[in-house]
Write a structure and sequence with these properties.
The protein is of the alpha/beta class. Helix content is 51%, strand content 18%. It has eleven helices and eleven strands. Strands 1, 2, 3, 4, 5, 6, 7, 10 and 11 form a nine-stranded mixed beta sheet that branches. A hairpin with a 5-residue loop joins β8 and β9.
Length: 346
Amino acid sequence: MDSPPILDACLIVKDEALNLPRCLASLEALRPLLGEVHVYDTGSTDDTIAIARAAGCHVAEGYWDDDFARARNASLAMSSAAWALTIDADEEYVGDPAALAGHLVGTGCDVFSLVQQHLDEEGRIAGRTPYAKLVWRDEVRFARAIHEIPTRLDGRTCRIGTIGESVASLRHYGYATERLRAAKAERNAGTALGALSAARARRDPTDVIRSARHAARSLAALGRTDDALVLYAEALAGFAVGTLSWRLTAVDITTTLIESGVEPGRTVAEVLAVVVLAVAAGLGVLYARRLGGRWAVAVAMAWGLAWIGWGRLADEPSSTVVGGVALVAAVVVLAAPARVRRDATT
């Protein structure tokens, strides 16, 4: 009896007749490491299915229900390989198959992150993003309707490794034109807002926070800056200060403000300012604990917060809300070292 292949490719597609031939051609470079190519179609009305079958792919005619993880898992279920490359039709594989094989044998990882190279209209690399694209199929499935993430079936934390671009990377053509970017942004926003509504209905605070960030990213891509900042503020307030999710959300907010080129509406600006001030207060408390209650940092931060508060109360642009919160934050930061020192003596 033949042993299962080391690696299969698993795709989810819909109306990808233009992109699919390029993707499938790139996968031929992975032979003989690559076993089968599995294509889960979510309702194509063009020649996608015919192209996949003519290329010898294993095709399943499925459905779309605004859940990327479910569709991704359906494609994984079609495979019997140890590893699955979850490549998309608008991507193409480039790399060194022999070197890749060495990573997949005897590894202690459940997932490998590959670099996705985003190409612009001229075919130049406009950006790079790491994505979990290689998964240990027996142990890993995807979760979340949008921006799906790999999770172990037994609930344990995924062991994630990285593979260099020279070994395996994915050229991404999906955002090469403004029309493609707009179409995907609209699709992702609808899915993300649906996932957020479902999380609110379940009253799951952890999922609400995560879904709020995903929805904010999609709205920012559509240019709906004010709506995005409101959800970003909700997410930032929910994540623990200093965690990876908190830091990534802070970066998202900064990027959104820089790229928008517009000043948010007053209400959104005040909400964002309050969240930032609350985070600053949290950092002040954190620093006091880690530095053993030293006064220098606390006094400097409190002075800055108090200056902001007085400025918003007495000068333009005035804001009683922001000014009041800034002064409260200053008191919290200044009181933190005293509390740390008192706790240390008890």
